[in-house]
Amino acid sequence: MDSSIAPQISRRDLFRVGGVGAAGLSLAALTGCSVFGSGSGGSSATTFTIAYFGDQKSATALQKRLAPKIRSIDKSITLSINAVNGTDWNDFFSKILTQIAAGSPPDIVGVPTEGLQLLAEKGLAIPLDDYVTKDMSKLKSYFADVHPSLVEAMMYKGHLYELPVDFNAGNMFFDTTLFQRAGVAAPAPDWTFDDFEAAGRKIATLPNVNAFDWVVRLWGSWTSFMYANGGNLLEEGKYAGGDWLWNTAYAGDSAAKGRQGGWKWGQPTANSAAVVESLEYMIELKKAGLSPSPDVGGGGTLQGLFSANRIGMAIGGGFWAGGLHDAGMKNGSFDVQYFPTGKVQRQLLGTGGYAIFKSSKKKDLAWEIVKLLIEPESFDIIYPGNTTTSARRSLSTAARYKTTGPEHWQTFYDSLSDVDVAPIPAPPIYNALATSLNQRTTQAISTGNAKSALDGMQRDLESALASKS
Amino acid sequence: MTTQLAVRPRARAAAPPKRSKKARRGEAVFGYAMIALSVVFVGVFTFLPILASLGLSFFSWDILSRPKFVGLQNYGRLLHDGPVLHSFVTTIVLAIVIVVLQIVIGLGLAVLVQQRRHKATQTVFRTVFYLPLLASTASVAIFMGYLFDQKFGVINYYLGLVGSGDVPWLTSSFGASVTIVLVTVWQQVGFTFVLISAALTSLPRDILEAAAVDGAGPIRTLARIKLPLISPTLFFATVVGLINAMQLFDQPFIMTKGGPGSATTTTVMVIYQSAFNNLQFGYGSAISIVLLLLILLVTGIQFAASRKVVFYQ
């Protein structure tokens, strides 16, 4: 129906009349999965709310660490960091959206690549262009420290929505103990799919060990193989614009050459030859006994198995350094290398930062806090223990990885400059894409028919795009 | 004398004392006050949301923008939506298998436990069988997900000890469906068991003794006497079990995410995905209304069929 003639009812009216309409959904059929009424409370005049992906215990600890810094900006402000649990970013972001719908949006929220375009498309977050332009002189050192590929991934339609705080590129971790036991040399930076397979075949001979393991998700899944095979789930393009930033913050930086106004995800290409080949490759790995059936989402189990020396190789980013160390792996028992080269040497990445909500009544304060959060000193407060990679190159140091490892920690940040990198395809219909990716991947693995599954995914994405329009 | 006893007039019931109109009115008000809380609770948390959901099903709404009235468009789309229709089939098949197993296993366990002579033994078994029902479904699903994991699950470990290869419990279509059914039945069977146990315990002893005197064995007594007598309880367990099973969500959502493919994607999962993942709340509402109607239809069929197979004393 044409929206111009369709009756328009405000969201609040609908809630009022319908008695929390969406809750009706849950009570009509969704017994036990209501997400409304979480009581986050929203933000009052003196409370500044940040939504945090994690458990409340960590959120409270972070709140205690950050509160003094926030008070240094405004003593009257009480910081409230609300934890939002989720199995993955998809889950987290769904819950954030529900909080927004329930009328209690936070002032700022940690938003990864997965949710950036949806937030921007819906007008829920404000562009930071004016703030950045105003404070450009203060931000020069920040931009000089942050690779432009991360900044470009935070742009949408020419506007900058977040300042990158952290990122993770899809590198390949390997268990050095298992490599030694299997008589396999550590991979070189330019290793190929053939090298990967050859190493895998030797490691697979070890008892109770999987040569390679992975999980079904958008970041660091078979999608890494897809990128290295020159494919993508959606047509790649870039929005025009962004010169206001590139010409000032990155003037003269060769890495910023050709950067535009953010990644533009076009029509679905899920059943293109390069994508089908990639998923078929995963099926072949399983048939060859080099990889088991993957789990869906998360990645905690994968890290657990890796740290128990049950996996030879797995896709991971900088966050694996802290994760494996916490799981008991000693520095030296694992290492990292770029993702192997297929038709091309290309890696995917995801980045994160903080978006300011349009509904926030304290936008200026929010901007000050965003600037506080990107300061080098804030990084370890927010992410203690190498649980992600800082967007600032200056924070990638030998001292940082001295305890946790890996030996080739430079791989994390050098991925941005030495290898072609592109963000995961996260259009405004990201949630539908993630749901379809989960279902169609498991379908392909269980049936052994990648083409049929990806034809289904193509239909899913076309349908999601049609619904959106 | 026998005749006299048979026709002896019943003692005249004592006439209730006459109460004033005011007292009767006060009593009525008290009665209404007593049920008011339940009525308000059910109204606010059940009927109103159902009505709201019905209303929402005529809108296109992503919770972030303004809702747009689309009439019956969501219902029309549903009729041609293959994955959604498939989820209904999956739900019905899983629900039927779950309920049949729940009734059969629940009945079997109840009969076996009733044969224990010691009350204490019966109590122990009742507690043990009911215990899983007290655990949170999500916790059970997470726990079972680890047990049934193909790579490191305990189940495959023990199967490996007897020479079996790794069974793809959660990563093959059939295996995932079987695992979901097993886990659900394991957790829910305690409810059916307790219901049937109570019904068996309350059977009139004189009838059972008469059957024993007439030479009926345990199986004949069960088939011809006990089952007909507890048929109202079995009917109740079937109706409640089917309504619950048709809202299956936690186990597939946590253990398989509806996969592999859409092998274990139930209708409530589709509702969740449509509404909370894809932000199509109107469409999700339309699916939930259709599910509600389907549950009502199935329940209606059960009630119609019950006239022939359920015996009320």
TrEMBL record, chain A:
Enumerate the SUPFAM superfamilies for this protein.
Periplasmic binding protein-like II
InterPro entries in the record: Bact_solute-bd_prot1 (IPR050490), SBP (IPR006059), TAT_signal (IPR006311)
Q: Which Gene3D superfamilies match?
A: Periplasmic binding protein-like II (3.40.190.10)
A Pfam family cross-referenced in the UniProt record is SBP_bac_1
Which CDD domains does the entry mention? PBP2_TMBP_like
**Record-annotated membrane-spanning stretches:** none
- From the Swiss-Prot or TrEMBL record, give the protein name: ABC transporter substrate-binding protein
Q: According to the entry, what is the taxonomic lineage of the organism?
A: Bacteria, Bacillati, Actinomycetota, Actinomycetes, Micrococcales
TrEMBL record, chain B:
| Membrane-spanning parts | 29-59, 88-112, 124-148, 168-196, 229-249, 281-305
* Location(s), subcellular: Cell membrane
Membrane topology (UniProt)? Multi-pass membrane protein
Give the superkingdom in one word.
Bacteria
Region entry Disordered: which residue ranges?
A: 1-20
Ranges of compositional bias, category Low complexity: 1-17
Q: Which family does it belong to?
A: Belongs to the binding-protein-dependent transport system permease family.
Q: What protein is this chain from?
A: Sugar ABC transporter permease
The organism that produces this protein has a lineage beginning with: Bacteria, Bacillati, Actinomycetota, Actinomycetes, Micrococcales
